[in-house]
Amino acid sequence: MAAMTPTAREAAPKPGTDDAEPTPPAAPTRTRTRRRPRVWRGVVLGLGGAYFLVPLIASFVFTVHTPGQGVSFEAYTALLAADGFTESLLLSLGLAAATIALALLLAVPALVAVRIGAPRLRPVVEVMCMLPLVVPPIALVTGISTVLRWGPDHLSRTPLYQTFLAVQNESFPFVLVLAYTVMALPFVYRSLDAGLRAVDVPTLVEAARNCGASWPYVMLRVILPNLRSSLAGAAFLTLALVLGEFTIASLLGFRPFAVWIVSISGAHARMSVAVSLLSLVITWGLLLALSRAGTAQAGTPGAAHPARKGRSSRTPSRTSPKES
Known about the structure:
By secondary structure, the protein is mainly α. The protein has 15 helices and two strands. Helix 4 runs antiparallel to helix 13 (257-264). It starts with 7 loop residues before the first helix and ends in a 10-residue tail after the last helix.
């Protein structure tokens, strides 16, 4: 039997003989099937980029080119000296920071408590957080203005009178923070709910509590690090909402950045377009910073360093004579 079975050298066909069968060319078909999605992907991305970039380029050309005078960057150099530019921008950034802090301070403990203790209340919380999408901003600002007019007239002899005056301070109108928090609740809820669904919150909380951790420690060191991307997404959407909101601030008589841009558009057309482009750049920069903060990986204390791990894998383990 051993003599009848051919060896490996005898079974392998020689390159010059007719027994060698060529392998089927499968590579060209793979390249064809892979090139088509790449081509369509490039076309779609190109059309999307043109849809966003062409208006921006046209706006930039409008701000720097004057017919008969040539190219001039006067619209951009006059921004810093424009009346109200710095104050309105800082006011909008402060309102955005306060709105993000208040929205997360309200939403995170409530959603975690519902997730742990009362899962049946989740539909009720979801409906309450989604109501601002149904109520239009004009109806919301009408109700706010009615309450602000009613309060000083009926509460003038109570300590709450000073509260109504404080929330309407022009240097920092806290009433806008309250209104923006209500408007941002749907976006904050969706972002946090998606993050909580991806994490086993009851198990993490139970393990931390069994180890003797307090509730503040559980929230700050156990739950929040696992919701980093969700928190960044909620802050991302809230920042974009506050920087672009116009209706509520205008009807209440305040002047953040969006209202200031509209107020100067009638007298200085080129400057208003330049300010709009600058606001887009500032917003994109802040949003990119938030997205980078959300995607940054936090170093876990128990994780081994890559270099040490590589060294330990390369070094052979020493065995005692008894084990060998």
